[in-house]
Amino acid sequence: MPFEWDRPLTTAPALDAPGRAQGAAPIAVLHAWPFRSLPKRGFAFIIGMAYVLFLIPISAFVGTLAIWWLLVPGLIAIGGLWWFIGKSYRDGEILEELDIWPDMIRLTRHGPHGRHAEWEANPYWVTVQLHKTGGPVPDYVTLKGGGREVEIGAFLSEDERPRLHAEIERALVLAKSRQGG
Questions:
Q1: Per-residue b/e over 113-146, b at no fewer than 16 CB within 10 Å?
Q2: Please, which residues have CB within 8 angstroms of residue 31's CB and are 6 or more apart in sequence?
Q3: 141 in Cβ contact with 164 (< 8 Å)
Q4: pLDDT of the chain along its 181 residues, tens only?
Q5: Is residue 32 within 8 Å of 156, Cβ to Cβ?
Q6: Strand 3-7 relative to strand 28-32: parallel, antiparallel, unpaired?
Q7: Which ranges of 33-122 would DSSP assign to H, the alpha helix?
Q8: Can you say whether the dihedral through the CA atoms of 125, 27, 135, 132 is positive or negative?
């Protein structure tokens, strides 16, 4: 599951619950990241398998000069495979963190190559929207508030984005409906 609540919001906070301004911890924290179809163990297996499969035809040329004409391009190909899969991992290093306090909501995006972006707003004025069409992906989820509209979870699959929308909407409704203490 490429998103999870570290602190799910299951009940409305108390009226006197401290907010971010008082230095309190968030009442809800969500983490979202892209799905990895090839885990690190799989990466090592693929490189090892490419090396072993490369050695099978090369073994017939051991002891001849022709091995060098086959060995160098083959090792370059394995090195290229290593580099491109590694680049795919580096480009997919995205983590989105949504923190909700009674008095503030903050979305932080840690992107590839050290890119960092933040968005903050008062949760009372924030709306979560699900754009069925018209976005860069189907079921595009955005948060609107603080004079801006920001995306969240665009890298998730089509069936995960509506679920993300529903869970964020439920958390915002609970955060806005504070209970008397």
A1: eeeeeebebebeebebebbeeebeeebbbbbebe
A2: 3, 4, 5, 6, 95, 96, 97
A3: yes
A4: 689 999 888 888 887 788 888 888 899 999 999 888 888 889 999 999 999 999 998 989 999 998 989 999 999 999 999 999 988 888 888 999 999 998 899 999 998 888 999 999 999 999 999 999 888 999 999 999 999 999 999 999 999 999 999 999 999 999 888 655 4
A5: yes
A6: antiparallel
A7: 40-58, 66-91
A8: negative
Cα–Cα nearest to 152, from 33, 28, 8: 33
Question: What is the spatial distance between Cα 51 and Cα 40, in angstroms, rounded to a whole number?
Answer: 17
Which H or E run contains 165?
helix 160-176
Count helices and strands (H / E) in the chain.
3, 8
Please list, in sequence order, all residues whose beta carbon lies within 8 angstroms of the beta carbon of residue 181, skipping any fewer than 6 positions away.
14, 15, 16
pTM, whole model, 2 decimals?
0.78
